[in-house]
Every structure is written in C-alpha cells, then in structure tokens.
C-alpha cells in the first residue's frame, strides 16, 4: 500500500512539472502562429489535456463499461467548470473575451442540451447519436480554425522566447509528462478507493473523472498564474466540447451508451452549472476571486450529492 501512495506522489510531480512545460510551449506556439492564446487553448491544449478522458472512455466502451464512459465525461466537465475555472480565478482574476463567451462557451451549453435531448429520446446514446455528436465536433473545429485564420491575418509578428523546435519539444514533453502523471494518479487513487470499499460507479463519476481532469486543472492554473488567461479559459471550454462531442461520440460509435435516470439528472446539473458559470463571466467580462469561491463551494456540494445518492 505504501508503494501506491509513492506512485500517487510521483504522478502529481509529473503533472505539475509537465503542465509548466506544456503551457510555456503552447504560449510560444501561439506567438509563432500569430493567433490568440485562447485558440491554442481550445485546440492543441484542450486536445492534449483531454487525452486521459479519451483513453478512459474508449477503454470503458470497448469493455462494455459504458456507464463509466458517460459518467467520466459528465464528471470531468463539472470539474472543469467549477474547480478548474474556480481555482484558476482564485489564484488570479481572469478577464474573458466577449467573442469566447458569446461563441464557444455558449456553444458548449448548446451541445450539452443536445446531449440531454439525445438521451431523453430513448434513454441511450446510440451509434446514430454518435455520428451527430461527431458532426457537431467537425463544425466546432471548422469555426475555430476559420477564426484562427482571420485572427492571424490581423496580427503582427511578435517577439518570441522559444524557438519552433523548442516550443514543440516543450508541448510534446510536457504533454507526455501530464498524461503519464494523470495515469499514475488515477490508478493509484482508484486502488486506494477500492481498498476502502467504494463502488465502481462512484469511482467512475468521482475519482476517475477528477483524475482525468487533473491535466486541465494543473494546466489552466499554471496558465492563469503566468497571465495566460485566454489559454486557461480556452483549455476548459475546449476540453468540455471535446469531451461531449469527440469522446462521447467515439464511445457511442464503439458501443451504444445506456443511460440511467441519475445520469439524466447529472446532465441537467451540468447544463445549469454551465449557464451559471457563463452568466457570472458574462456579467462583467471577468471571473473574480469571489466567483471562484462560489464555484468551488458548488462543486463540493455536488460531490456531497453524488456520494449521498450512491
């Protein structure tokens, strides 16, 4: 058991150091490409930090543990909205861009409603539903890259700190460390939870979801501390969109996802939380520290509800 705790510590070290290099490389890449950091956050960084969720959900689908796949997506998105944004803006107030709030953040709410509608129709997410989600993901990528091209045309070259090769090395090396650290943390935490007698479903919705969201948490927190607010917020929004459209879409294509009544409630909670977080940021185009405290308290309350329900 002591070995498990040791791996847990090593995992956290890899997460923190990997995220530091990952943010540095991503920030430099944004300057190299002459695009806003938020676009890099919603694409390169979001895809990288969503790798653990993708691995866990696809593995769960292939082994017919679809409940874990869907629970992982919902739990990760709740964690991203309340804990990642919350802790990031507690560390440093986070100004937001109205284009992001009215565009991609609002789009993440819309697709959550779409997911709920697909679930409510026949209490499952089938292969046709998976195709719909992946089509919406294709549209999201089209919008982001179209925006990147427009932004690049209107942006002057800026001085950069890292060379192209070093930027790529930091992104790849940091991502490898983040994913490896996340894997160690999830595996160790799951082993500890099982030793204490927690159920598989509870582990999937809480510990696995929290563990696979650690890359988003550490990356966004480090980005916020470095003043890369666009990258921090873009990482959260992009990751949530990746989780619902890409990860859930692929999982449904591999094996239809059966949905329980409690999962429907969780989806409704996710939509309500998304609307609340959107409204808080939209009001003054900034997430203040008080918003972060409210978000963290809400997440703690949600965890109490989930554990009590189990």
From TrEMBL:
<keyword id="KW-0472">Membrane</keyword>
<dbReference type="GO" id="GO:0006874">
    <property type="term" value="P:intracellular calcium ion homeostasis"/>
</dbReference>
<dbReference type="GO" id="GO:0008273">
    <property type="term" value="F:calcium, potassium:sodium antiporter activity"/>
</dbReference>
<dbReference type="Pfam" id="PF01699">
    <property type="entry name" value="Na_Ca_ex"/>
</dbReference>
<dbReference type="InterPro" id="IPR004481">
    <property type="entry name" value="K/Na/Ca-exchanger"/>
</dbReference>
<keyword id="KW-0812">Transmembrane</keyword>
<feature type="transmembrane region" description="Helical">
    <location>
        <begin position="6"/>
        <end position="23"/>
    </location>
</feature>
<dbReference type="GO" id="GO:0005886">
    <property type="term" value="C:plasma membrane"/>
</dbReference>
<feature type="domain" description="Sodium/calcium exchanger membrane region">
    <location>
        <begin position="167"/>
        <end position="307"/>
    </location>
</feature>
<protein>
    <submittedName>
        <fullName>Calcium/sodium antiporter</fullName>
    </submittedName>
</protein>
<feature type="transmembrane region" description="Helical">
    <location>
        <begin position="259"/>
        <end position="279"/>
    </location>
</feature>
<feature type="domain" description="Sodium/calcium exchanger membrane region">
    <location>
        <begin position="5"/>
        <end position="144"/>
    </location>
</feature>
<feature type="transmembrane region" description="Helical">
    <location>
        <begin position="35"/>
        <end position="56"/>
    </location>
</feature>
<dbReference type="GO" id="GO:0005262">
    <property type="term" value="F:calcium channel activity"/>
</dbReference>
<feature type="transmembrane region" description="Helical">
    <location>
        <begin position="165"/>
        <end position="190"/>
    </location>
</feature>
<dbReference type="InterPro" id="IPR044880">
    <property type="entry name" value="NCX_ion-bd_dom_sf"/>
</dbReference>
<dbReference type="InterPro" id="IPR004837">
    <property type="entry name" value="NaCa_Exmemb"/>
</dbReference>
<keyword id="KW-1133">Transmembrane helix</keyword>
<feature type="transmembrane region" description="Helical">
    <location>
        <begin position="68"/>
        <end position="92"/>
    </location>
</feature>
<feature type="transmembrane region" description="Helical">
    <location>
        <begin position="104"/>
        <end position="121"/>
    </location>
</feature>
<feature type="transmembrane region" description="Helical">
    <location>
        <begin position="286"/>
        <end position="308"/>
    </location>
</feature>
<feature type="transmembrane region" description="Helical">
    <location>
        <begin position="127"/>
        <end position="145"/>
    </location>
</feature>
<feature type="transmembrane region" description="Helical">
    <location>
        <begin position="231"/>
        <end position="253"/>
    </location>
</feature>
<feature type="transmembrane region" description="Helical">
    <location>
        <begin position="202"/>
        <end position="224"/>
    </location>
</feature>
